[in-house]
Amino acid sequence: MLPAETLVVTFFEHPCLAVRSTDGTIYVSVRDLCDTVGLRANGQFRRLRADEDLHEGLQTFRVTTSGGPQDQEFLILEFVPTWISSAQRSSASITVRERLRFLRLFVIRETYNAFARTAGLPEGDSRAIEELRDLEQFDNAMTAIAERQRLIEESQQKARSAWRELNARVRALEEQAGGVISNSQRGYIYQLVQVWAAARIAREPELSRAAIFKACWGAINTRYRLAKYEHLPATQYTDCVTYIKGAYQRLTGEELAVPEQSALDLE
Asked: Which residues contact 204 (CB under 8 A, 6 or more apart)?
């Protein structure tokens, strides 16, 4: 499937490729998310495909990369919190482990609160339920939530059409305001970092793939004092490209020859 729109966004301080399908649904690159958390992508692909629910959120898109058009696996955005919060966290950094732990606890609490609200029971703590017989209301709550979900899915197409119209207006306003790098420029920097990091991975086997990607993006954010690379001022775009290409050349002795034209598909 070819995406209708592609953009690089930051999750957990790591740029990830996101796409929008022709029906408006948003997906995020599974491999990029694995790099973000420090997970092994192949193992997570097997886990997602084996899950009877999560596998429905997987979709293959053909996207532009530094090596040309390639097929990559993406996960629907709605499924990302559930999947990533239940992933093994031992290999992640301390900061990411803490975020994932709080995310998992949030998902658990919000799921319970949704049932409690529908059942007419107190939210937040089961100790607030005075009578055990009130638990009978949970079955009615589950039925009601399932029916509500069905109705939501039936109305999705109308919501997507409205979103596309609103999104077009917002993007027009953003283009008028200017100030930061464009979508295509974000995409080109992303491609350059992918090639730079791959070269480092080949030369620094003692470091993990996730650590190297984090170091590359961290170097850019530190150099330009950014919280997220997409905040890079447009006036510093050329300098950033030169910096990445220079780092690659110092590392490999070769020119980083990724044509900028290939990033236009990310606009």
From this structure: 212
